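Quick note —
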Amino acid sequence: MSEKLQKVLARAGHGSRREMEAWIAAGRVSIDGEIAKLGDRIAADAKVRLDGRSVSLKSAEDIVCRVIAYHKPEGEICSRKDPEGRPTVFDRLPKVRDARWVAVGRLDINTSGLLLFTSDGELANRLMHPSNEVEREYAVRTFGEVTETAVQRLRSGVVLEDGPAQFDHIKSAGGEGINQWWHVGLKEGRNREVRRLWESQEIQVSRLIRIRYGMIELPKSLPRGGWIELPIEQVNYLRQLAGLEAETRSMLGTDKHSVARAKVRSAKIRRAVRKHKTTGGSQKPGRQRS
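Predicted structure written out below.
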């Protein structure tokens, strides 16, 4: 049996399917010594190279779908490399053998909070597709007066430069004076959509934190710059959202020795994060549910 080249490369964790299609179109991929074309299909024994280097291909049965939750700090960009030398979200992720972590969506440089990564490029590709409307929840700190009229407009919908938009829910989360916190949710992932919605009402956003993706919440104990691998139940929740079959294997151990090692690893991560210089900011809002 054969499969499309970009699907096999994405599934093996070399990047998202869209990234793989761009690589193929640019002539960077070859199959059995011939430059690959979009639409090419490959058999299991094909020899595939990227920029002249042999790449690892795996069947669906060979891949264990892994997902990690990362607490992105402000100041990091969602690219593997940056010409300006700025830190990226990939810098502190754990190494994964014969694959690469693929980000599920993006957060802009000034946004912090929950960012998911997976070793399964097909899962990332499906979750990022516009037809897969997964609600994201954000904690937003606004600066200035927010009238009830503005809140109602954000609930009912406004017109942005790329079309109509609205929050699926919006709820006050406290604050002092002109600095107020809100919890908002939306299912779309358009560029800077949360900020642009508030700006449409001439309201400035001074802090933005993603605290939930679907039913996956940002762990309260996870420090900025820290990561944690999700258990198989949460992995399969995401696979169900994406219309994929359930995973039956996990890299996480359940015996007491594995749990002890996980606690030691978590402590090391926290120490590393404390040593890492992070951007400043006032205290986060309470994690009240919306």
